[in-house]
Design goal:
Helix content: over 70%
Order of helices and strands: HH
Strand content: under 5%
Distance between the termini: 73 Å
Keywords: Membrane, Transmembrane, Transmembrane helix
Number of helices: 2
Largest sheet: none
Transmembrane segments: 20-45
Structural class: mainly alpha
Amino acid sequence: MTVHRTGAPSPRRRRARSGLWAPALVSLGLGVPAGMPLHLAWWLLTE
């Protein structure tokens, strides 16, 4: 029996790749505002 591969990604792989955008955006959305007070505290301590 011969198995022919089309080269198209499986639905599971496609879903996993597209599912990384939401956690990445949430991480950036939380991380950037959380980093600002740390940056300002560093700036106050060094000036």
